[in-house]
Design goal:
alpha+beta
Length: 89
């Protein structure tokens, strides 16, 4: 049975949190008080859902950090996430 969007997002957040706890310097490169958008490459439904949430809750002053990763296998030790921080133009 397929997990719900909330369950899949929770799996991603827990895994990403463990990854960051193992590498706290990752946070040094991110802006303070950012919004996190998880975009799993192999789950287009979840990526679209998460991206749509961003559009529904605009916070123009709060920076956004996009994280691309794969759900299967969800092992960030083998394939680390790609983190993108858009810069203002």
């Amino acid at each position: 049975m397929k997990k719900s969007v909330a369950e899949r997002n929770l799996d991603l957040v827990m895994t990403l949190t463990r990854f960051i706890l193992d590498r706290p310097r990752v946070l040094d490169r991110l802006p303070p008080d950012f919004r996190l958008v998880l975009l799993p490459d192999d789950d287009p439904e979840l990526s679209r859902y998460n991206f749509d949430l961003l559009a529904q809750q605009p916070e123009p002053e709060q920076p956004v950090v996009f994280v691309r990763l794969k759900l299967h296998p969800l092992n960030l030790q083998i394939q680390p996430p790609q983190v993108y921080v858009p810069v203002p133009v």
